[in-house]
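Hi R.,

Here are the chain sequences for the assembly we discussed:
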Amino acid sequence: MVLTKSQQKTVNLVKRHWQLYLLLLLPIIWLIIFKYVPMYGAQIAFKKYIVTKGIVDSPWIGLGNFERFINSAKFELVIINTLVLSFYQLVGSFPFPILLALCLNQVRQKAFKKTVQLVTYAPHFISMVVLVGIMIQVFHPRIGLTAFLARMLEVDAPNWMGSPSAFPHVYVGSGLWQNVGFRAIIYLAVLATIDPTLHEAAIVDGANKLQRMWHIDLPGIMPTAVVLLVLQTGRVLNISFEKIYLMQNPINIRVSEVISTYVYKVGLLSTTLDFSYGSAIGLLQGVVSLLLILFVNKLARRLSGHGIW
Amino acid sequence: MESGNSISTPRDIDDVFLPHVKETGSDKVFTTTNYIVLGIALLGVMAPLLHVLASSFSSTTAVMSGHVLLWPVDFSLDGYEAVFNYKRVWVGLGNSLFYSVFGTMVNVTMTFLAAYPLARQNLPGRKFFTFLFLFTMLFGGGLIPTYLNLQKLGLLNTRWVMILPGSIAIWNLLITITYLRTTIPTEIHDAAQIDGCNDIKYLISIVLPLSKPIIAVIALFYAVQHWNTYFDALIYLRDHGLHPLQIVLREILVLQEMEMGDIDLHEYYKLMGLKELLKYSLIVVAAFPILVVYPFVQKYFIKGMMIGSIK
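And here is the predicted structure of the full complex:
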């Protein structure tokens, strides 16, 4: 076989850098075993899984599992809850990191600024279990912080953890509490890159601080904000399992059951372990998410000139 | 890339420009409002933490009667005594320490093994391999096929399941690749090659010493992830002896299950309040290590975020 010049060059490069491929070998084996084998295993979504036969030899049943899910009573509930909670979280938590960054950017007192940053970043590092633990204690209807404040205001103590109507607000609010500071970091970084001559010109023109924040700082971070928002939209179906599963209780289950928790329950928790049915729901979510992400990335690219890849 | 410094010290335009001009009336109102808004944010974030901290140092009666706001009432260490006498907490703590330390070592090694070759611009097949990694960030087999796979591999209910399946986090791989590409000039590599340095030798003697900052960043990301997560343990581990701290915390704080037999508290037994008090102290004990270390390593996290965002 005769190789063209460029092919010959490639072969030489491969030969020269065999050590690099050797280093890459272990990660690639890992990738195949722990990531791609389960992807291949996702075929049980189209099968009737029989334990003794395993994934490959179980009989195909086509789209039966998917039809069963779409026609089930849970379908609408789970999809609606997932979308409502995700979008509420997306929109509810969007403006606050921007506001925090804009305000912090105006602070001249270094010590105060550092303190606010240090404190507001901190909750980001608290685990979900501890976060939900804190919520249960702080919102405790008898001994919690909210109960104390309610007594001071002489109103009835709220029971936010045990009320379905409060659930979305508690979910979104606690997420905001945990992440507002950390999300502000990126906006602060963008604010630091805004051209100072813009501010100088505005001062000469007699603009006050509020006007400069509104007409210079805010437009300056808007492109970043829009791209982040669009990209997050692509993840609306991937609502985090960890927190919502911890927050679930029999009282709020009608508003708190989402796709990921439902998959876990039908697939791994229920007494009639239905691997195929659970996988089908998971696969449906995965495919729709993938399409969504590809779509919004394209959108982000069009809006800003660059997506995440 | 300008790192952490530019964030904490942005240019103070008003100090540099027209420093002698006094704030106008509307600017004064603005500045005051600004401080009030930030003050509210500060208080709002701190209040729940202070409430838990204060409660944990209060007496059972003060806690049970709901008298604690943001400062300990009737100071006592009973809650901490109960935590330290609770055996499951210590088993969990030991396991979490093991998973975090050993797991992070595996993570960093594996991430570097992948990142170093993939950061090379001229490596044939680099794009394809990078895509193989990236794709798993967008799509996966799902919970149940993953579970069945681990079952088949015989990893369920072993310590390995907490370490091997998550060896590489794709996000950390990406920031490592970006770091290697942007901070180590290719000229160094060319020079080393001319001097007869092979790829592995180059990795060990040049790349690794230059990569200390990124190793710190990803090691921190991985360690915090190991310390904080409960999901894998919930699904894959049955033996109580293998459970990390977060699973024990979940039982006590969220499911409100406590094995009172494990606590050596015969004289306190009747004090139901101790159960409640223990939760506050437990939260403090669990969150304490991270919150204490965090101010010192904060800049590394920010650095990691920034490297991620220039990608």
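Residues 1-11 of chain B have pLDDT under 50 and may be disordered. The first helix of chain B runs from residue 4 to 8.

Let me know if anything looks off.

Best,
T.
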